[in-house]
Amino acid sequence: MISTSDLISSDTIVALATSSGTTGAIAVIRLSGDRAIDIANAVFKGKDLLKQETHTLHFGTIRDEEVIVDEVLISLFKGPNSYTKEHVVEISTHNSKYIIDQVISLLIRHGARAAKAGEFTLRAFLNGGLDLSQAEAVADLIASENKASHEIAMNQMRGGISSELQGMREQLINFTALLELELDFGEEDVEFADRSEFMQLSTTLKAHLTKLIASFEYGNAIKHGVPVAIIGKPNAGKSTLLNALLNEERAIVSDIAGTTRDTIEEAITIEGVTFRFIDTAGLRDTDDAIEAIGVARAKEKVAAAKILLYLYDAQNNTADEVIEQVKSFRREGLTAILVRNKIDLEGGHFPNEMDDRIREELFEPGYVAEIIAISAKDANSVAALTNSLVLQIRGMVSDDQQVITNIRHVEALKQALQSMEDVDRGFDLGISGDLLASHLRDALRHIGTITGQVDVDRDILGTIFGKFCIGK
Ligand code: GDP
C-alpha cells in the first residue's frame, strides 16, 4: 500500500509490468527513477546504455556476474519523456518465472527497490504526467472488458473529463477573482462582478454539474454491467429466454413450474454493453419453503436491477395479472420492457386487445418502455429484444456527453453542486461578498479534487493508487 513516504520517494523502483503466471512469450520488467539507466547498465551486456539516446531499443544479455540470465531487449526512455516523467527502462525478457525473479532480484541487488502497487502511476501523477482522474482512468482501462467501458476509460485517460472540468473551473475562478477584487475596494461600493451575468453562469454550471452527476448512473452500469432482472410467472419462458440470450444451455429449462429455484446470473456483452442477466424463481404464491425464498430473492433482484424484463404469454396470463405485477415493481430508476413470449403458439393471431389494455394502463414515461413480442425458442425474434436493451442503455446519455464512472468523482461533483446552490441562495438573501466568495472557493475546491489540482488527502491517494496492480 502506498504510504506518505512514497509521495516523496526518490528511489528507483522495479516491478514486472506484464501479468505474472501467464503463458505468453515475453515479460516486461520496468524500472523508474534517477538511477534506472545506471542500474540496468550494470547488469546489461551490450551497448553502454549511458551513451544511448532516449526512445531507443537495445539487444543484449542480462548477466549475474558471468552467468547469462537471459537475452533481452531494453527500451530506454529518458525523463521527462516517459510515463513517470523519470528515467524509465523496460526490459523485455522471456516469460519464465525463474528468469523474471532472477532479473528483478539482480536489479534490486544493484540498488533498485520493489515497486508497490500503483507506484509507477503515482509517480506519473506526482510528476505532472497525468492528473488524478487520468490516473484513475488507467486502472479503468486495464479493467475494461467491453467496448463501451473501454471508450469511456480511454476518453477519461486522454483528458476528456479533465478538460471539461478545467473549463468550469476557469469560469468560476474568473468570477471569484472579480468578486474578491470588489472586497478589496471595501467601502467604495463598486461592482466589478456583473450579478446577472453571474446568475446566468451559475445556472449553466449547475446544469452542467447535474448532467455529469446524472451520467454516473450510465457510467456505473457500463463499468459494472447493466443488471437485468428477468421476471414472470412460472413457465413464462424465463429460462428459455436466458438460454437464448446466452446461446447455451446453462439455466435449467423444464415444464415443471418452479424448477428454477435459485437465481442464476450470467453476463453477456451485446454491442459493447455488458448486461448481467438474472434468472429468478417464478412469481407466485407458494407454500414451498425453498420456492418462497426464491420469490423473495426475485423481488430483491428487481430491487437491484436497472432493467426489468417482464415475461408473459397470452395463454397463461391475463392483462390484469400483467398490469398488477408490473405495477408492483415500479420504482425510480427502473426501466421495464414487457416481453410477450411464445408468439409461435398464437398461430398468427395476436391478442391485440390484451396489449392495448396493458399499454393503456402501464405506459408512462420513465417506466415501461415498450412491449416486444418474441418466441424465446427463435433466435431471430430474440434479437429484437437485445436491440431494445442496447437502445435503452445507449439512450441514457447523448453521444458527446462526458460520462462519470467513478464514485469519488460523483461525490465531488455533488458537493460542488451543493456549494453552487449555497452561492445562489446567498445571492437571493443578499449575503456579503466574502461569504459568496467562500462558497465559490468551496465549489472550486470540490471540482479540483477530481483532477487533483488542489491538495488531495494522502489517504485518498493511497486508496486510489492501491487499487492498481504491482507494476502499474
Ligand atoms: P420459466 O419457468 O419461466 O423459466 O419457463 P421455462 O423457460 O422453463 O419454459 C417453460 C416451458 O415453456 C418450456 O417447456 C419451454 O420449452 C416453453 N417455452 C418457452 N418459450 C417458448 C416459446 O417461445 N414458444 C414455445 N412454444 N414454448 C416456449
TrEMBL record:
PROSITE patterns: G_TRME. GTP binds at residues 235-240, 254-260, 279-282. Its EC number is 3.6.-.-. Its cofactor is K(+). It is found in: Cytoplasm. Signal peptide: none annotated. Keywords: Cytoplasm, GTP-binding, Hydrolase, Magnesium, Metal-binding, Nucleotide-binding, Potassium, tRNA processing. It comes from the Bacteria. SUPFAM superfamilies: P-loop containing nucleoside triphosphate hydrolases (SSF52540), TrmE connector domain (SSF116878). Binds 1 potassium ion per subunit. Pfam families: MMR_HSR1, MnmE_helical, TrmE_N. Residues 225-398 form the TrmE-type G domain. Mg(2+) binds at residues 239, 260. InterPro entries: G_TrmE, GTP-bd, GTP-bd_TrmE_N, GTPase_MnmE, MnmE_dom2, MnmE_helical, P-loop_NTPase, Small_GTP-bd. It is an enzyme of class 3 (hydrolase). Its main location: cytoplasm. K(+) binds at residues 235, 254, 256, 259. NCBIfam families: mnmE_trmE_thdF, small_GTP. Exhibits a very high intrinsic GTPase hydrolysis rate. Involved in the addition of a carboxymethylaminomethyl (cmnm) group at the wobble position (U34) of certain tRNAs, forming tRNA-cmnm(5)s(2)U34. Homodimer. Heterotetramer of two MnmE and two MnmG subunits. Belongs to the TRAFAC class TrmE-Era-EngA-EngB-Septin-like GTPase superfamily. TrmE GTPase family. This is tRNA modification GTPase MnmE. The lineage of its organism: Bacteria, Pseudomonadati, Bacteroidota, Sphingobacteriia, Sphingobacteriales.
